[in-house]
Write a structure and sequence with these properties.
The protein has ten helices and two strands. With 269 residues, the chain is mainly alpha-helical. It has one domain.
Length: 269
């Protein structure tokens, strides 16, 4: 674990030292760097979400065709997903990617904001850049709160931070998850049901993390989620609506079918 943790501690400490000994700024910049590194995975997930919306017309055809046979419908849906490279529960991907990162960041913050002489000695031994130990001990105060400690629920600012974690997690999930799919009987299919469940579970889980772990970790969540929301909005803004794509595809298919008799007639001549 140290081969992952020590670089995180070193990076957070380095950013702290070059950003005017401001731990909040260090966490924000660290978060931006993490989002840049994981952006290719996020972009892939967003494209998968867009593809899910584009195959909705074909999905409805399958639902009508196999409305009396759920087993065949499920098999046909999975085949359609594979054919178009769609992950029906892909909206969970960016949030799951953050789990190992937040564990390492949480420990990095605890080590970086060492409060005892023993912790200070341990921190010095984990820094991979010579001379960086001059930045410790680091300031752990932020608007009257200790960044290394869980939030005090009697503090309205701390409660607002927890609320922002839950809200931004929910918004990011909604922005990155595909539109819900329904079977012919009007009920959500298995993938859609799982996605909807995760849309409820993930914000609550991250809110529990924000309540149980350090405030510094909550700041990471808020910044990371906000960047994810902005990335999703920009990507969706620069892409045509799924209905437009489906209409173009349907029109092209109709024209192709209409042209086939003329082509056959030309060949026969």
């Amino acid at each position: 674990m140290d081969f992952i943790l020590n670089p995180f501690i070193t990076l957070v400490t380095f950013l702290y030292s070059v950003l005017g000994n401001n731990m909040v700024l260090a966490i924000i910049v660290f978060t931006v760097l993490v989002r840049l590194v994981t952006y290719p995975l996020t972009a892939t997930q967003l494209r998968s979400s867009k593809a899910m919306q584009q195959i909705q017309p074909k999905m409805k055809e399958l639902q009508e065709k196999y409305k009396n046979d759920r087993e065949k419908l499920a098999q046909a849906q999975m085949e359609l997903y594979r054919e178009h490279g769609v992950n029906p529960v892909g909206g969970c991907l960016p949030l799951f990617i953050q789990l190992p990162i937040f564990i390492a960041l949480y420990q990095a913050i605890i080590f970086a904001l060492a409060a005892t002489p023993t912790q200070l000695l341990d921190l010095s031994g984990r820094l991979l850049i010579p001379g960086l130990d001059s930045a410790i001990p680091m300031n752990n105060s932020f608007i009257g709160m200790n960044l290394s400690q869980p939030p005090n629920t009697s503090n309205p600012i701390a409660l607002a931070i927890i609320g922002l974690v839950v809200i931004t997690t929910y918004l990011q999930f909604k922005m990155t998850s595909p539109a819900p799919q329904k079977n012919a009987d009007g009920k959500p299919d298995q993938g859609a049901a799982m996605t909807q469940s995760m849309g409820t579970i993930m914000p609550v889980m991250y809110g529990f993390f924000a309540l149980s772990f350090s405030i510094g970790l909550s700041i990471y969540f808020i910044v990371s989620n906000t960047i994810g929301i902005a990335q999703s909005w920009l990507m969706k803004r620069n892409q045509p609506p799924a209905t437009a794509v489906a209409t173009v595809s349907s029109t092209a298919s109709t024209k192709e079918k209409a042209a086939r008799p003329a082509k056959r007639a030309a060949k026969s001549k």
